[in-house]
Amino acid sequence: MGGSALAHVEVEYGGTILMYLSRPYFAYNHIHDNIATGGPIPAYPWDTGVVTYYPNNNEGFVIRDSVIENNLGGGIKAESGLITITHNIIRNNISGSWAGGITCLNRECLILKNRIINNTGKDVTGAIFSYSSIMIVKSNLIANNIGPQTLSDRGGSVFSKWSGTFDIISNTITNNSAFTAFLIQRTEVNDLLQNNNIIGNVGQYAVYLH
């Protein structure tokens, strides 16, 4: 997808919205009932978010004030760039790989003041997945997400990390279900989990270092 704006748009019963080497204004959209079709070189039908961002520079991209719901393939995937995800409702998405809600790979991801609810990740995590990223998750409602119930290198309902760093601050985290709420691999001294309201999650562990 190119162009300068995707705003006040309803997208339904389609495939991936792929922003590849483009950075449009993205706000006030309703993205629902779509099936993700992979990245620039599709590998598996469910390997990406329905909204997928591959940048061409480090200027950053914002997804804001949108509803992303009822999609197969997960909600949002960002790779190799700076992205801010703020004031969205991300709910009822299902992923067969990565995260049901938000996946961030290989760069910086700011997740601020969203409602991330009722997402399912069948392979890795329910709500948020980070791979080699700088992740800031602040002031969100993260509730009723479902991840894998057994551990391999997966199993988080709220957040899973395979390397990188994170700040998870001042979120309400409740009623999520998986092997553990937080699955942390390759823990860094700068990782921060602070001032969150964590209550009523279901799993064998609240935080699992693996």
Descriptive terms for the model:
24 strands, mainly beta, about 210 residues, 14-stranded parallel β-sheet, eight-stranded parallel β-sheet
Describe this structure in words.
The chain has 210 residues and is mostly beta strands. The N and C termini lie far apart (38 Å). The strands form 3 sheets. Strands 1, 3, 4, 6, 7, 9, 10, 13, 14, 17, 19, 21, 22 and 24 form a 14-stranded parallel sheet that branches. The protein has an 8-stranded parallel sheet with strand order 2-5-8-11-15-18-20-23, with no helix packed on it. A two-stranded parallel sheet has the order 12-16. It has strands at residues 5-7, 10-12, 17-20, 25-27, 30-32, 51-54, 61-64, 67-69, 76-79, 82-86, 89-91, 94-95, 102-105, 108-112, 115-117, 120-121, 128-138, 141-143, 156-169, 172-174, 180-185, 192-194, 197-199, 205-209. The chain is built from no helices and 24 strands. Residues 39-46 have low confidence and may be disordered.
